[in-house]
Design brief:
Blueprint (H helix, E strand, L loop, with lengths): L1 H21 L5 H22 L1 H22 L3 H23 L2 H9 L5 H29 L3
Helix pairs in contact: 1-4, 1-6, 2-3, 2-4, 3-4
């Protein structure tokens, strides 16, 4: 669950609007329009193809895309032209695998007698990781928005 947050999804989700506005474009609706159908598709594919193949595709693809997103900010022309598309593809990759599969796995690995307590602990760790990423990214954006 920590890897889910440290993969960069909260940076994309929380700051997409301000990043698109600083680039002179509005792409948040396009981001949502790409994410919602792919989340549903990911749930259908999870039943058909299994969790492991989706995670094996989603994880590396997210790593590559977050690297491309971070390097696109160093080139203004690349930033203005390709960032919206990269955000959308990243969001689709997250929705297909890393978005819901860890929650499903978490609900299945714990025995019934500790499922509530363990699920609560995992959720707290997940949200705390989300806060760390959000706080750090906000600090970095204020320090150097490029």
């Amino acid at each position: 669950m920590v890897f889910q947050q440290f993969g960069g999804v909260n940076m994309i989700a929380f700051y997409a609007t301000s990043i698109f506005e600083s680039a002179g474009r509005v792409g948040t609706l396009a981001l949502v329009a790409a994410t919602v159908p792919m989340t549903v598709t990911g749930r259908v594919l999870m039943d058909r193809s299994g969790r492991r193949p989706l995670l094996m595709v989603s994880g590396p693809q997210m790593k590559i895309l977050i690297h491309k997103i971070s390097t696109a900010g160093s080139c203004l022309g690349c930033f203005l032209t390709g960032l919206s598309f990269l955000f959308q593809i990243f969001s689709v990759s997250f929705s297909l695998g890393m978005g819901g599969i860890p929650w499903v796995i978490m609900s299945k690995i714990f025995p019934m007698n500790v499922k509530g307590l363990a699920g609560s602990l995992v959720t707290v760790v997940n949200r705390f990781s989300s806060w760390i990423i959000s706080f750090a990214f906000n600090f970095l954006m204020n320090w150097s928005s490029s």
